């Protein structure tokens, strides 16, 4: 079993190449400090394991597909890494070797044909696809005020990845159309973050906001029937199930959170957005979610959400 050393590399040549790649992430791709740190952790551990197993003369250029396969197997058997963790490690390795091949450090990419670890069905999140989203929107009668509001909520859930509690806590002032951002000020754990407005969502929110201003509303999704003055999660769950059935969509779960899973899955599996950027967009607790941090990475977050085309 190799040492779990994430902070330093024990081979100078390997370290130089990894650090060159990390500089590429930081300066050329303008990745966030958290993203760079995550790749460093994965690649240092990968390098140290291979060096301990194969000897100090091993370099990234001498690695073959079998070395990577054995490393992933080692993570599973010796470190009890879950499939999702091994997927993240493999993503780091694939990105690293893509950089090396593009810059002629290696002739062949040894990770190219390595298959992604499979996730047991019990661990796989249920999610709506882009096609599901379009069917659900198509099942809504948007000519009515209620149907129109419901469609906007579904647009927001699928194209921002917000939790239902976050979406329903939005106020009109949180939607900054000039900067094209949503200020999530009442996130989980009272954490704040910024989510760029997707290019397909922008006209929807622009028109909807105009309608709301006529009634001088404060909440983005108001409700006169609710004691809080805004729509409740239970109400959203009910109409989502109704529209799913009307659209002929059957899932193990049909809830607001399934749209959040759809947002993340589409970005990661279909568009190749790195997990740390997705975690920032989702407001996961293992990332810095202050407004200042989100602002410094707004450019990258915007490019991520805009990858979903409708």
Automatic annotation (TrEMBL):
Domain named Tyr recombinase: residues: 123-306
Superkingdom to which the source organism belongs: Bacteria
Keyword Nucleotide-binding: no
Function, in words: Site-specific tyrosine recombinase, which acts by catalyzing the cutting and rejoining of the recombining DNA molecules.
Family: Belongs to the 'phage' integrase family.
InterPro entries for the chain: CB, DNA_brk_join_enz, Integrase-like_cat_sf, Integrase_catalytic, Integrase_recombinase_N, Integrase_SAM-like_N, Tyrosine_recombinase_XerCD
Protein name: Site-specific recombinase XerD
Originating species: Desulfoscipio gibsoniae DSM 7213
Keyword Nucleus: no
Keywords from the UniProt entry: DNA integration, DNA recombination, DNA-binding
Entry-linked Pfam families: Phage_int_SAM_1, Phage_integrase
Domain (Core-binding (CB)): residue spans on this chain: 12-101
GO MF, any single term: DNA binding
GO term, biological process aspect, one: DNA recombination
